């Protein structure tokens, strides 16, 4: 059973309020409500508590349905507002719905109350879920758009459908220049088999991770990149495209090559030392090679 249904009852009649609550209880709800009948008391209730639903009488001695609706709309609440009344014309109902009420129930036909509440509570939840999804999508889109790495979306034939600022910086093409164009423009002519092999793997639902390769910038210069390519699937699990994350590794490659060159130079130098003539082998010592001078001749 669902939890308590928090209802703000805008109603001047205590008896009618109890009838509405009883109808909701018969419909499977656990109504927890507060009754208000003036603009000030409604304003206070909206400020102090959070509500799941507002049920509002149309005609009251000190308040009215249209005025309560205007107060509700000022607060930009997204909870159902359902008006009830004893007797109003269809034209009045239409005006209230047009003004922003979600539904209208006649007090003489309260059997409509529970279905109306269920429908509007479900619709409100769907709106909240949709806003959360849209907010999450916008947040993710912002992350992708401003990521330092190049992030590119493509169809299965290689047509570019998304191109972030990282891709603009890496490859030199703007999004306007690349969206709708084949990704093959970045592939060097001497690597014709690379893209078909990648897309064969993507169609099988496999990711290509850490592929170090070369791409061609707009100005024609080659650039070393590391690619991670993942399949994009629809709701049914069918592969419909691919996303690529590319990172510039030119500097890393240069550093690796410099380290390799240094190692090779050191290895060659050590080999030369080990294979050269032995230092001092067979040479006489200083004491052995010293030439002894004779004593000076004695004076006559």
How would you sum up this structure, described in words?
The chain is an alpha/beta fold and 300 residues long. It folds into two domains: 4-139, Response regulator (Rossmann fold, 3-Layer(aba) Sandwich), CATH 3.40.50.2300; 146-252, PAS domain (Beta-Lactamase, 2-Layer Sandwich), CATH 3.30.450.20. The protein is built from ten helices and ten strands. It has a five-stranded parallel beta sheet, with helices on both faces. The protein has a five-stranded antiparallel beta sheet with strand order 7-6-10-9-8, sandwiched between helices. β4 (81-85), α4 (90-99) and β5 (103-106) form a beta-alpha-beta unit. 22% of the residues are buried. The model is unreliable at 279-283 and 285-292 (pLDDT under 50).
Helix/strand-derived category reads alpha/beta
Largest sheet: 5 strands, parallel
Order of helices and strands: EHEHEHEHEHEEHHHEEEHH
CATH top level assignment of the largest domain: Alpha Beta
Q: Reading side by side through the largest sheet, how are the strands ordered?
A: 2-1-3-4-5
Average pLDDT across residues? 87
> C-alpha Rg, in Å?
41 Å
CATH architecture of the largest domain: 3-Layer(aba) Sandwich
Please give a handful of descriptors for the protein shown.
five-stranded parallel beta sheet, 10 strands, alpha/beta, five-stranded antiparallel beta sheet, elongated
């Amino acid at each position: 059973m669902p939890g308590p249904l928090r209802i703000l009852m805008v109603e001047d009649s205590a008896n009618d309020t109890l009838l509405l609550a009883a109808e909701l209880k018969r419909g499977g709800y656990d109504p927890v409500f507060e009754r208000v009948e003036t603009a000030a008391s409604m304003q206070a209730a909206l400020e102090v508590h959070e509500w799941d639903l507002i049920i509002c009488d149309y005609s009251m001695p000190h308040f009215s349905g249209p005025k309560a609706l205007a107060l509700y709309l000022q607060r930009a609440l997204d909870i159902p507002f359902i008006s009830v009344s004893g007797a109003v014309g269809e034209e009045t109902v239409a005006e209230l719905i047009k003004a922003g009420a979600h539904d209208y129930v006649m007090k003489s036909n309260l059997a409509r109350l529970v279905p109306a509440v269920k429908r509007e509570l479900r619709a409100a939840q769907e709106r909240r879920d949709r806003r959360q999804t849209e907010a999450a999508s916008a947040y993710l889109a912002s992350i992708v758009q401003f990521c330092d790495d190049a992030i590119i979306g493509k169809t299965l034939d290689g047509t570019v459908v998304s191109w972030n600022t990282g891709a603009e910086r890496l490859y030199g093409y703007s999004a306007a220049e690349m969206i709708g164009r084949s990704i093959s423009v970045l592939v060097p002519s001497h690597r014709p088999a690379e893209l078909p092999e990648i897309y064969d793997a993507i169609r099988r639902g496999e990711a290509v991770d850490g592929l170090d390769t070369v791409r061609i910038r707009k100005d024609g210069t080659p650039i070393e990149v590391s690619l991670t390519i993942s399949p994009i699937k629809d709701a049914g699990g069918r592969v419909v495209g691919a996303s690529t994350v590319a990172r510039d590794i030119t500097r890393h490659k240069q550093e690796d090559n410099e380290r390799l060159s240094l190692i090779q130079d050191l290895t060659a130098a050590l080999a030369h030392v080990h294979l050269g003539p032995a230092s001092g082998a067979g040479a006489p010592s200083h004491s052995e090679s010293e030439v002894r001078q004779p004593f000076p001749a004695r004076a006559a």
